[in-house]
Amino acid sequence: QVQLVESGGGLVQPGGSLRLACAASGFTLKNYAIGWFRQAPGKAREGIACIGTGDKIITYADSVKGRFTISRDSTKDAVHLQMNSLKPEDTAVYYCCGRHRISGAEYWGQGTQVTVSS
Fold first, then answer.
1. Among 34, 32, 85, 41, which Cα is nearest to 63's?
2. How far apart are CA 98 and CA 111, in angstroms?
3. pLDDT at position 108, please?
């Protein structure tokens, strides 16, 4: 089955850190741009970070810039989202999305819950 799988979510105190991972099942991430999105209850899904297939194009939403870092681990065929200085407003379900650089085929994961609370 072709799908993306997120992991690494959980409960963390404000100011803490989490590292999310996005891995593929049934295909390789090599030719896919990967984006991280999040959706808080009652809010629209928000794109927060993206890394291109060549890893040279990396973008962040203003809401996470300077606190989150997206990176690709080619040896493990995964994309990580390092989240530091977490705030309660970062609480959301986090999703990764992969888009093939040529065909445009797109896959989404099921999401992982991140809760920032004391």
1. 85
2. 13
3. 96
DSSP 8-state secondary structure symbol assigned to residue 89: G
Phi, psi (deg, nearest 5) at residue 47:
-80, 130
Which residue in this structure is represented by tokens 């065929």?
Answer: 77
* Residue 97 one-letter amino acid: C
61's enclosing H/E stretch is none
Q: How much of the chain, in percent, has pLDDT values that exceed 70? A: 100
**Of 111, 101, 98, 78, nearest to 35 (Cα)?**
98
* Vertex 64 angle, CA 63 and 67, to 5°: 140
Structure confidence at residue 76 (pLDDT) = 86
What whole-number distance in Å separates Cα of residue 52 and Cα of residue 58?
6
Residue 26 has pLDDT above 80, yes or no: yes
